């Protein structure tokens, strides 16, 4: 399983990039694309600043960290699109909350139709319903429910065989030069005989 580009775009869109450390909705120091100290280095403290390039590198490491955690917790086969939706959710709420969530429970029970609804329950932070979380959960639910990509080991369909070329049109065989010469001599001889008969 891997995180798709659509999944990465969803994370980037809702996390946004901040070059200077700030406190999020629940007071946790955050920087870059939603990076916190709990995800690993760098430790986020007041006054920390990073470049856009550093932010992209931190995001890649964080996504890898959360993808590994989600992969360990999911016990049933899922598609890359479904996996990407779960990684986005875990990236936002943390692996601990994901582990205890009804979202993971539904996934591991194979109750996939229930997952978008259960994602939609996670829209509160700091005791308030946040419009950004409502929209994010909706998009994660849509991604999870979207048509899954075929497994990587699915064989490609066979290529159609090229059409059989039509046989060349039939042509009369060429007469040999000898046969043509004999025919010409026969005609000439008949003309001579006819001429003699007329001269009599």
Fold topology:
Layout: H1 5-15, E1 18-23, E2 29-32, H2 52-73, H3 80-93, H4 95-100, H5 102-108, H6 115-119, E3 124-125, E4 128-129, H7 131-145, H8 177-199
Antiparallel strand pairs: 1-2, 3-4
Helix pairs in contact: 1-3, 1-7, 2-3, 3-7
At a glance:
With about 200 residues, this protein is mainly alpha-helical. It has helices at about 5-15, 50-75, 80-95, 95-100, 100-110, 115-120, 130-145, 175-200, and strands spanning about 20-25, 30, 125, 130.
Overall strand count: 4
Instruction: Give the termini separation.
Output: 109 Å
Structural class: mainly alpha
Work out the radius of gyration: 39 Å
| SS strand fraction | 5-15%
Specify the CATH class.
Mainly Alpha
Give the number of domains. 1
What does this structure look like?
The chain is mainly α. The chain has 8 helices and 4 strands, in the order H-E-E-H-H-H-H-H-E-E-H-H. It has one domain: Lysozyme (Orthogonal Bundle). Helix content is 52%, strand content 7%. It has a two-stranded antiparallel sheet. A two-stranded antiparallel ribbon has the order 3-4. The protein is elongated. The mean pLDDT is 84.
Key phrases:
two-stranded antiparallel ribbon, single chain, 52% helix, 8 helices, mainly alpha, two-stranded antiparallel sheet, elongated, Lysozyme, 200 residues
